[in-house]
Amino acid sequence: MKKNKLLSKGIYGEAMRELKVVGIIFAAVTLFVTLSTFAVGVLGSMRFTSGSGGAVFEKSIVDLYTIAWICDALIVIAAPIMALKMFGWVNTRRTADFYHSLPYTRECMFVSTYAAVATWLFAILLTVCGVGLVAYS
Fold it and tell me: Which of 9, 15, 33, 56 is geometrically suited to a Cys-Cys bond with 116, CB 3.0 to 4.6 A?
C-alpha cells in the first residue's frame, strides 16, 4: 500500500544528499564569479598618484547589478542540471522499477525531489547575494 503523503522527509533528505556535489560546485562557481568581479572592480578603480605617494580610489563602474545577470544565468543553468540528476532514474528500467516499488506515491516523490532542488537553488542564491551585498557595501 502506498503512503498517502505529499512530502517525505526521507526522500527529501536523500535528494539533498545526492545533490550535495552539484550544489557545492555551482555555489563555488557563482561565488567565484561574484568575488572575482568584485576584485576586478576594486583593482580597476584604484589609481596611484606619484605626487602624494598613495593610492586614490575612484568610484568603481562594477557594482552588484553588473554581475546579477551572470549569477542569474548560472542559477538558470543549475536548475535543469540538478533536475536531470535527480530524475535520471526514470531513464533506466532497473532503477525505475526500484523507485516505483517504494511505498510512496509519484506525487510524493516528485514534490520531495522538487523541494530538494528548490532548496539547493535558494541556498545558492541566498549565499551569493549575501556575499555580494557584504562585498559591495
Answer: 15
Copy the grid coordinates of residue 116: 530538494
* Main-chain dihedrals φ then ψ at residue 104, nearest 5 degrees: -130, 150
Residue type for 58, please?
E
In this prediction the pTM is: 0.77
Longest Cα separation, the chain: 83
Give the distance from CA 27 to its chain's centroid.
5
User: How confident is the model over 62-107, as pLDDT tens digits?
Assistant: 555 666 777 788 888 999 999 999 888 878 888 888 887 888 888 9
CA angle 63, 67, 71 (to 5 degrees): 145
d(CA 57, CA 50): 14
- Looking up cell 580610489, which residue turns up? 57
